[in-house]
Amino acid sequence: MHLLRNGKKKLSLGLVLVLPVFSLAYTPSKPEPEVSGGAPEFNQFEESKSASLGYFSQAQVADSAHDYDVTKYIIDLKLVPASPASKVTGRTTIQAKSQIDNLITVVLDFVGMTIDSCKVNSVSTSYTRSVNQLFVDLQVSYDSGGSFAIDVFYHGNPSGGLYFSTNDYGTAVYYTFAEPYAARYWFPCYDLPSDKARCEVKITLPSGNYVVSNGILYRVTDNGDETTTYHWKENYFLSTYLISFSSSSFAQLDTFAIVAGDTLPVQYRVYPQDSSKAVIDFKKTPEMIEYFSDLWYPYPFPGDKYCMVQAELAGAMEHQTCTSWGVPMTGDARYEHIVAHELAHHWWGNQVTCNDFANIWLNEGFASYAEVLWIESEYGTTAKRNHLAAFEGNIYASRNGSVKYPIYNPPETYLFGTAVYKKGAWVLHMLRYLLGDSLSFGGLKAYGQQYSYGTANTEQFKATMEGYSGQDLDWFFDQWVYSPNYPRHNWSWVYTSIAGKYYLDVSLKQTQSTPALYTLPIEFKLSTAAKDTFFTIDDTTRELHFNLVLNSQPTGLFLDPDYWILTSDTLTAYPHLAGDLDGNSLVLLGDMITLINTIFRSAALPSPAAAADVNGDCRISLADVIHFVNYFYRFGPPPKQGCP
C-alpha cells in the first residue's frame, strides 16, 4: 500500500534492527501554536473570492446532465460609465444544443438588470423571470442534439460581477470578477463550471481605454463617436466564472516564453504609474511558464497568450489567459508566489476545471502546491520547507475554522478557506511523498491530459492517480480529502546500553479526536557520531511503540526530517514509569529483583530497556542496583529512565 521513497529503509515492527553509526544535532518538534481569538481564515489576497460567497447561501452542485449544453457565448456590451441609471447596455448570444428530447424552455441564470427582449434564432420570443433565473420560450421543441441560438438584450447597472471603479491614481478602471457564481450578474448564462463553452467578448467604451479579455484580440474598431470597440475571441473552452474583461488606460509591456519550441506572447497591462514596478514583480513569469510546461506539459493555451492585467479587485484571479491582478505592486517581487499560483491555475482550474465548487480543492490546492514547486525549483530546499511551514502554520491556526471540515465539499463559508488552499497543497505534497516524483508528476500529467479542456471531480482525479501508479489510494483520500483535521502526534524516545549494545525505544501516539486514526508512513532520522540513518515505519495504530538495537550511541532522533507529513508533533517524556521493569505500573522490590536477574543471569531486558537504567547514566550496570537499594532502604532519589 505504501511506496517508500529513495530506497530508504522501512522498519517492519517486531524485528530488531542493528543500525550503523551516524550523527545529527537534535531538531525540535513542531507543535501547534496557541491561537488566541479568531485566526485569519482566508488566503492573503483572496478576499474577492470570499466576498463573492455572499451572493448565494450554499454551493450549487454540478448538473452535467442539464437540459442543454452551451457551446458558445457572445457577449456584446456597451459601457456608459457616466450614466447613473444604465451603465451597461448588452446583448448576449447563447449558442447551445439540446441534451434532451422535447426541449421547449431554456432556463438561464441571470440576476438584476432589465431585459429589453429575447430572440431565438433571430425571431422574437416570450420570456419570464424569477429572482435569479430567466426562462426563454424556444417556440418549437428541440430533440437531443438540436442546435439553437438565444439572444438576450438588456440594460442597467449590474449589482455584482462587473464593476466600475477608480484606481489610486484617479484613473477609471472597469473590470469583471465572477468566481464562484457572479457571472450571472453581468450576462445570462448557465452559471456552473460543469458546462464549458467558447466565448467572444465585445466591449464598447469611451476611447482612451484599453480592454483585455480571454483569448486573442480579434479586432479594434474606432466608432467615430469617441468610443472604441474591442473584440476578443477565446477558442478554448472555459467556465463562466473564468470569462472576464478588464479595461483602463494601461501601459503595455510585452515579452515572451518558449513553449514546445514555439513563442508564447506574455503581456503585462498595468497602470502607467506602476509599470517600472511591474517589470520587477512579473519578471519571472516567462520562466514560470517554461518551468511548469516542462514539469507537467506545455502551457495549455497555445496560439493565445498569457496576460497579467491590473484591476481593482482585492487580490488576484486566474481568468483564462488574462489573470487579473489586484495585489499591490511593490517593485521587489515579494508576491512572486502569487504570480506562480495564478499561472498554475491555467493547468489546474482553467484547462481542467473542478466540475462543481465542492471540488474546488482541485483548483486551489493544486495552484497552492505549485507555489511550493516553483520555490523549490528556483530557490532550493530550505525555501521550499519555509513555504510549507508557513502553510502548516496557517492550517494549525485554522483548526477551529475551515480545517474542522474536509477539503472536499467544505461549507460555503470556507469554500476559499485555509483548508482548501493550504491543506489541499499539503495533500498533494504527501501524495508526492507516497508515490515518488516520477509517479506523482506523471499521474498529474495523465490527469490533465485525460480531462483536457473539460471538468473533473475528486474521484476522477483519484482514479487517474491509481491507474497511473498502480496503487490503491482509497485509504489516502478517505483520511486526507474526505475527512477533517490532521494528525497530532505526541512522541518520545529513550535509550540505554548494556553489553556493548544500545537499546532505543520510541513511542508514538496520535491524540486527535477526528478521525481517530490516520494511517501514515512516517520517516525518522537517527543520528550517531558517524552518519545519519533514515528509516520509515507504518503508523497504523493510535499508539505505537517500537525498539531498535544499535551498535553505537544515538545522539538525535527527528520525526519527518524531510518535511513530508502534515502533522503537529510534540516531543514528550517517554510514557513509562521509571523503574517499572515488570510492567505492572508499580515500582516495587520485585523490579529490583528483575534488574538483578537482567544483569547477572542474562534475563530478558524489560520494555523499554531504559526502564532498567534507573540512575539515568545511559547504561545498565551494578550502579543501577545500588540506586534501587538506596531508593528502597535509604530514601535515595527515585528511579530515572535512561537517556536522553
Description:
- With 644 residues, the chain is α+β, with helices and mostly antiparallel strands.
- Among the domains are: 64-249, Immunoglobulin-like, CATH 2.60.40; 576-644, Dockerin domain (Type 1 dockerin domain, Orthogonal Bundle).
- An 8-stranded mixed β-sheet has the order 7-6-10-4-3-13-16-15, with no helix packed on it.
- The longest helix is centred in the middle third of the chain and has 19 residues, at 361-379.
Largest sheet: 8 strands, mixed
Helix count from the secondary structure assignment: 12
Spans of 5+ residues with little confidence (pLDDT < 50)?
1-28
Class per helix and strand makeup: alpha+beta
Spatial strand order of the main sheet: 7-6-10-4-3-13-16-15
Q: Briefly, what CATH class of the domain at 64-249?
A: Mainly Beta
Mean pLDDT: 92
Multimerization status = single chain
CATH architecture of the domain at 64-249: Sandwich
Shape: elongated
Number of E-state strands: 31
Instruction: Tell me the Rg in angstroms.
Output: 31 Å
- CATH topology value of the domain at 64-249: Immunoglobulin-like
Kindly, what is the distance between the CA atoms of the first and last residues, rounded to a whole number of angstroms? 35 Å
Helical fraction: 10-25%
